[in-house]
Amino acid sequence: MKKTFMGVRLRRLREERGMTQVALARALDLSASYLNQIEQNQRPLTVPVLLKINAVFGVDVQRFSDDDEARLITALREVLADMQSGPGGVGPEQAVSLAEIRELASGMPAVARTLLALHQRHRQALERLDALGAQLGDGRSGVLASASHQPMAYEEVRDFFFARHNYFAELDDAAERLAAEWGLQPGRADEGLVRRLQVAHGVHVVTAPELPGGAQRCYDPASKVLQLALGLEAGQRAFQMATQLAFLEMGHELHRLADGAGLSGEQARALARIGLANYFAGALLLPYTAFLQAAEAVRYDIDRLGHQFGVGFETVCHRLSTLQRPSARGVPFFFIRVDRAGNISKRQSATHFHFSKIGGTCPLWNVYEAFAQPGRIVPQLARMPDGRAYLWVARTVSHGGGAGGWGAPGKEFSVALGCDLRHAAQLVYSRGLNLADPEAAVPIGMGCKVCERDACPQRAFPPMGRVLDVDENRSRFAPYPVAVGGSPGGLANPHPGVA
């Protein structure tokens, strides 16, 4: 553990418990002067002290994790870049430095989160103004639709899972217990699931040549018939049946978690329930303890785990990103799924990696290289602009099912799983890679709009708040800080006086 100064967080914990400094020092078996030095950031928060805090107060150590700090730093950089750009934005002379952002995220995380929440409200207010202006401009009357007051439902649900570090102990523990009670066997879980549906709920499972809207599962509560799409593999069938069992067996818990997430409307809550049901299904097919032990035994070899548990590459990757039980943590992974156009349809993070919300990802990322090598696992050492390095593995996956027939478009995605470089040696995919060489990592970013790598050969446009210096004597565009009062599009006119 590196030296971590978190005096403000420790003082906040003490204030929440209504304790004096002397009382906290006595509870932790420390001298009052030593505790005072920790709270004043004159001494780092060490592992022994952190373990004492966990033992005495039952506080999750994640509260003092530098991973959480890194998530805040990344989010703050994105928000501040957005605030600096556009009409009314602050100029470069008022820009907040990375050192100041680190200090805010480390010392005052609650203030940092409040700033992020305020920015989100600011963006929502701008969207409402734009929508109202469009209505008035068209001469229409009426009340502004309430939908424009809130972010999109799926974005709210993504933030909900992200805030929980993609781990739900309630569902994970219940799934592991029920898998044992029902006698589900790795690789043959579909047999036990069919039996459970029939015996406990009177549900009959049938195969349908084609389901409405290309669905993979369709349940009729009246007839108690569960239809599964023709062409699903055994693992996919098992996953769909496990998802239906989540609604039948865990419906109350799904509603409780979704209702307590602070989501804006029923559509978001319904999406959250679906996501939670899928989470339970994965935990049922891949029980926590058995799956973690198997993963560690094969050094997180995704294909071998898929064969052992009878599920596909994507399901294994998704499950690996959820192994964050406090008493038995796996490698903290980040999981993402994209299509060829760069649309992100799934993204989950068990730790600090932050996916950009402003748009676009990095074309140098191996998640896109995987499309050029379909079916093959493509490893990559990558380094972000903040200096953190990661090991990523990516592979294409195809989604079948249904009876599309000749000429029907298919579904192809690239699935990527990543972890911090300090965990890379635990993965079989690090074999042959020079993890100690800083030059071996490919420099990537979250996307051109928020990436400050000036010399990147793949840059599509300047970062927000910066423009292209058009120099007729050079063969390339070089970004430089924008002055306040640039053109409405964010690019200042390189030739003053020319319309």
Automatic annotation (TrEMBL):
InterPro entries linked: Cro/C1-type_HTH, HTH_RamB, IrrE_HExxH, Lambda_DNA-bd_dom_sf, ScfR_C, TransReg_Diox_bact_type
Domain of life, per lineage: Bacteria
Domain HTH cro/C1-type: from-to ranges: 10-64
A Gene Ontology molecular function term of the record: DNA binding
A Pfam family it matches: HTH_3
CDD domains for this protein: HTH_XRE
Keyword list, A-Z: DNA-binding, Transcription, Transcription regulation
Alphabetical list of Gene3D superfamilies matching this protein: lambda repressor-like DNA-binding domains
GO cellular component, one term: cytosol
SUPFAM superfamilies linked: lambda repressor-like DNA-binding domains (SSF47413)
Family label: Belongs to the short-chain fatty acyl-CoA assimilation regulator (ScfR) family.
Name of the protein described by the UniProt record: Putative transcriptional regulator/transcriptional regulator with XRE-family HTH domain
Organism this protein belongs to: Acidovorax soli
